């Protein structure tokens, strides 16, 4: 049997990346949103390394005469609320806000205009960098029924070109990250051909390992489960991403979906049982048979009793990894991270794959108790202790 030098070098590079990740403290990024702009006491933020303010609209940067940078808070106001040295970033884009990116990516001229305007914004606001939230380049975004994926295929090669222009305009010292899909079916722009080019321009990727069950699904699963999270990060690693530049995503909110009563009731497990139709097959519109809310939100009255049962009677799935509850009375599937479920992910995902950090959507969404942030802190503390112990060996 011939020795496979290519495979050996690939595994050597992964081992070296894991050693680098182990020798530096893990990143901890918190998205801070205009919907929940709540920040806890600074002592609760001791592990936070970056804060990404969400969002600025990408279309803003296509205007050649733009001079206004609207955001819900100023960098000067926010810096004292976080530990010294915390990097402040601006997140540009978001789930449904893609048109501005498409316009920006169209040509060399539009890419340069966009990037130069972003650089002007960074200088004017005093932030340390940007997070590119063009979450679905190449298709499968919110408008995928109106604009088919083949019509967006040109965005796949254009995406790394836009990142290249951003890096050229911002320079080597500013941070550039990107939020990227957690489901392989949505990773149209993230292949073995494109990921190395993408990573060349970025400091790290925030892999959205949440909403892994959404209205396009037809069976129940964990929206932020361990097994699905492993599949997500493995896809990026297989495509050429350095594990130390990947951050695992945590969701500080709940999800619920309506299910088929008979099929779920007769199944050996409610995991994988049929849902009702959640999305309009013609338009892709949400049919209102699912929902979610953050820990800072009021619980919707129509699911309040069911949610109380989910909190008290739910269980952890040791096979797929995730906390869940199926409400037989109301035919609702609940999926969310408890503090215990959050802490389990550090050895099961972060340590197992040698990832470089974590992030959460979002900080204020966990107010007022910040119990999930506390669990994240505990997980990071234990992760650091484990790494120190291994380094001492």
UniProtKB/TrEMBL annotation:
<dbReference type="GO" id="GO:0006032">
    <property type="term" value="P:chitin catabolic process"/>
</dbReference>
<keyword id="KW-0732">Signal</keyword>
<comment type="similarity">
    <text>Belongs to the glycosyl hydrolase 18 family.</text>
</comment>
<dbReference type="InterPro" id="IPR001223">
    <property type="entry name" value="Glyco_hydro18_cat"/>
</dbReference>
<dbReference type="InterPro" id="IPR011583">
    <property type="entry name" value="Chitinase_II/V-like_cat"/>
</dbReference>
<feature type="signal peptide">
    <location>
        <begin position="1"/>
        <end position="23"/>
    </location>
</feature>
<keyword id="KW-0146">Chitin degradation</keyword>
<keyword id="KW-0326">Glycosidase</keyword>
<dbReference type="InterPro" id="IPR050314">
    <property type="entry name" value="Glycosyl_Hydrlase_18"/>
</dbReference>
<keyword id="KW-0964">Secreted</keyword>
<dbReference type="GO" id="GO:0008843">
    <property type="term" value="F:endochitinase activity"/>
</dbReference>
<dbReference type="InterPro" id="IPR017853">
    <property type="entry name" value="GH"/>
</dbReference>
<dbReference type="Pfam" id="PF00704">
    <property type="entry name" value="Glyco_hydro_18"/>
</dbReference>
<dbReference type="InterPro" id="IPR001579">
    <property type="entry name" value="Glyco_hydro_18_chit_AS"/>
</dbReference>
<dbReference type="GO" id="GO:0008061">
    <property type="term" value="F:chitin binding"/>
</dbReference>
<dbReference type="GO" id="GO:0005576">
    <property type="term" value="C:extracellular region"/>
</dbReference>
<feature type="domain" description="GH18">
    <location>
        <begin position="26"/>
        <end position="383"/>
    </location>
</feature>
<protein>
    <recommendedName>
        <fullName>chitinase</fullName>
        <ecNumber>3.2.1.14</ecNumber>
    </recommendedName>
</protein>
<keyword id="KW-0378">Hydrolase</keyword>
<keyword id="KW-0624">Polysaccharide degradation</keyword>
<keyword id="KW-0119">Carbohydrate metabolism</keyword>
<dbReference type="GO" id="GO:0000272">
    <property type="term" value="P:polysaccharide catabolic process"/>
</dbReference>
